[in-house]
Each structure stands twice: as C-alpha cells, then as structure tokens.
C-alpha cells in the first residue's frame, strides 16, 4: 500500500473532476461497487503519484475511479463505482 | 497579483485581482498553473484565505524549498505579475454559515489553517453568531500564520486554542504537544451538541484528528477533512 503521506482526498481532484463533469463533484456521493459503502467524493482516498489519478474507497480500499489524461484526451474508469449521486438544478 | 503580505518567514499571502471572479465559498481552493519557457507545466492547489468577495481573492502559500510551484509563488513573484489559475473549486470542505446555529470546530495543522481562516473571516463578515472553536497546531510561535488576526478573532467570539509542537516561548499558556485525544476532548464540543468539524492539514495530522473525533463518538459525516499530503508543493 502507498505511503500514508502520499494519500490525499477527493478535494484534491475537484479541479480535475470539474473538467469532466458539469456539476461540482467533491460534494457528490459515490457508492463503492466492492463493499457498497457510500462516501462523499471529498472524503475518498486519492493518490496522484501514479501515472494517472487513483481514487480508492476509504472503507475497503477498492479502486473506485481512475483518471488518466494525455495527448488531449482523458480516460475515466468508473468500474469500481456503482453509483454517483449529485445535486442538479430542478 | 496585486499585493504580497509576509505572514511568517516561509509563508506569504498573495492578493489576486480577477476579472469576472464572482466570489467563492469558504473552504474552496484554486488550482495555480505555472508554465516554464520550454512549455513544462506544474499545477498545485491553494486554499483561499480571504472571505468571499467579488473580483478579489487571497491565497496563503507556504514555501517548500523542494517544491515546484511554491518557491516561485512565495519567493519570486512580485506585485503586478500575472498568474494563471482556475476555480473556485470544491463543495465538500466548505462552511458558509447556512446550517443555522450548529457549532463549528475548526482543526488546522500548519498551513491547514488557511481555508479555516476564510471561514472565520466569513463568519465575521456576515455577522454570524455561530459558536466556533479553532484548534491550531504549529511547530513554533514563529510558524503561526495570521498570528495577530487570530488574537483579534479570539476577542470576537471565536474560541482559540493553540498548540506549539516543537518549541514554546517562555510564559506560553497554550498546549505544547501534538494533538491527541485528551486535547481534542478538552477542545471539541461534546457529541450531544452535534458539531460540524472541519479538519485540514498534512495527511497524518488530519487522519489522527479525524480518527480521534470519530473514535469519541462524533458522526463521521460531520467530520469533514482536507488532506494537504506530506508537502503540498
């Protein structure tokens, strides 16, 4: 497991997520596809030292989200996230 | 960038003027991007220190000698220089005084006090009577950011508790150790008061504080955290 001090949280990728999603995402809640626990994105564990960004569930450490950017394209892997819930305008 | 304020030997506040800036929510940050002449880019996040205000914001930056961005921001930049940034960013680690009379506990380690100061300043700006306590951990008295202002807010109804973990000056009446369970139990509101806690600082600091708060019975959803990592940058 990564060094503890390299661990950030979802607040650190608020700007990156704002490039991808149309709404503010650190206050969104994600359901882990592994253990089913629900956490605000601001609370999840984030590692930015990998080639991309790796987001892990704080309850079970499963990878929730991976984001890789390069050459004018982005890859968003949400296979570890069962559901994202966020505020939208009515 | 319109003004530089030296806060401590290693910390500076940069006051930025931004056309079209509509203000922010206390606790939000911006991403600052530097581009070298050869095209190399480095980006770091910096918490906004100022209270929400249109057209203007301030970030407070700790200079890390092995950092990629902070030595430039808090060392080479001069008033009048232009800076590329995006924001405001975030919506989880915020307090904007809209949840009534709920008491608020702010816990900051080192430069983690910066977004908390935005909240404290906002409380004052809007004339809120929210009960607020600040627990601020710094290494030495010289490392305390916003030292004079913190003394002032203590008179304005924010209860301030400080701990100096490395050295304490003669006559120091605050704590003189790293945060621990006994300290948080003395400072934090009791669980029955259902406070909101906002904890910000280096990763290990944040995780120790949050684990203690949850361990003594606070609702994990009411303990909001923001980790700066080991260094920031």
One letter per element, helices H and strands E, the order of chain B comes to EEEEEHEEHEHEHEHE
Q: Strand order across the biggest sheet of chain A?
A: 1-4-5-6-7
One letter per element, helices H and strands E, the order of chain A comes to EHEEEEEEE
- Note the total helix count of chain A: 1
Stretches with pLDDT under 50, minimum 5 residues of chain A: none
The largest inter-chain interface, given as chain pair and residues per side, is: A-B, 20 and 21 residues
Radius of gyration of chain A: 13 Å
Write the layout of secondary structure elements.
The complex is a heterodimer of chains A (90) and B (233).
Chain A: E1 8-9, H1 14-20, E2 29-32, E3 38-40, E4 45-47, E5 53-56, E6 63-70, E7 73-77, E8 81-85
Antiparallel strand pairs in A: 1-4, 2-3, 2-8, 4-5, 5-6, 6-7
Chain B: E1 3-8, E2 11-17, E3 29-35, E4 41-47, E5 56-62, H1 70-76, E6 84-89, E7 104-109, H2 113-125, E8 132-138, H3 147-155, E9 158-164, H4 181-187, E10 196-201, H5 203-215, E11 223-227
Parallel strand pairs in B: 7-8, 7-10, 8-9, 10-11
Antiparallel strand pairs in B: 1-2, 2-5, 3-4, 3-6
Protein architecture, described:
The complex is a heterodimer of chains A (90) and B (233). Chain A is mainly beta and 90 residues long. Chain A is 8% helix and 38% strand. Chain A is built from one helix and eight strands; from the N terminus they run E-H-E-E-E-E-E-E-E. In chain A, strand 2 and strand 3 form a beta hairpin. The longest helix of chain A has 7 residues, at 14-20. The mean pLDDT of chain A is 94. Chain B is an alpha/beta fold. Helices cover 21% and strands 30% of the residues of chain B. Chain B contains five helices and eleven strands; from the N terminus they run βββββαββαβαβαβαβ. Chain B is globular and about 55 Å long. The model of chain B has no long low-confidence stretch (mean pLDDT 95).
């Amino acid at each position: 497991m990564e060094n503890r001090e390299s661990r950030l949280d979802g607040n650190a990728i608020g700007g990156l997520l704002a490039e991808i999603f149309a709404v503010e995402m650190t206050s969104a809640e994600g359901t882990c596809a592994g253990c089913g626990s629900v956490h605000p994105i601001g609370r999840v564990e984030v590692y930015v030292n990998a080639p991309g960004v790796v987001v892990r569930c704080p309850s079970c450490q499963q990878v929730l989200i991976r984001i890789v950017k390069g050459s004018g394209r982005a890859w968003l892997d949400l296979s570890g996230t069962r559901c994202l819930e966020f505020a939208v305008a009515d | 960038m319109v003004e530089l304020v030296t806060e401590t030997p290693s910390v500076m506040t940069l006051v930025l003027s931004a056309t079209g800036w509509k203000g922010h929510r206390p606790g939000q940050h911006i991403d600052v991007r530097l581009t070298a002449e050869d095209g190399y880019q480095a980006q770091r996040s910096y918490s906004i220190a100022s209270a929400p205000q249109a057209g203007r914001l301030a970030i407070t930056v700790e200079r890390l000698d092995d950092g990629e961005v902070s030595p430039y921001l808090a060392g080479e930049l001069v008033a009048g220089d232009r800076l590329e940034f995006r924001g405001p960013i975030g919506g989880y680690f915020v307090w904007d005084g809209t949840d009534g009379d709920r008491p608020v506990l702010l816990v900051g380690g080192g430069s983690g006090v910066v977004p908390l100061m935005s909240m404290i300043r906002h409380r004052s700006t809007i004339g809120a009577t929210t009960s607020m306590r600040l627990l601020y951990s710094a290494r030495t008295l010289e490392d305390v950011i916003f030292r004079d202002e913190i003394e002032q807010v203590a008179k304005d109804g924010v209860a301030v508790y400080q701990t100096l973990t490395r050295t304490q000056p003669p006559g120091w009446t605050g704590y003189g150790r790293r945060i621990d369970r006994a300290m948080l139990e003395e400072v934090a509101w009791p669980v029955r008061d259902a406070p909101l806690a906002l904890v910000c600082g280096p990763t290990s600091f944040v995780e120790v504080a949050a684990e203690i708060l949850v361990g003594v019975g606070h609702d994990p959803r009411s303990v909001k955290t923001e980790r700066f990592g080991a260094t920031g940058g």
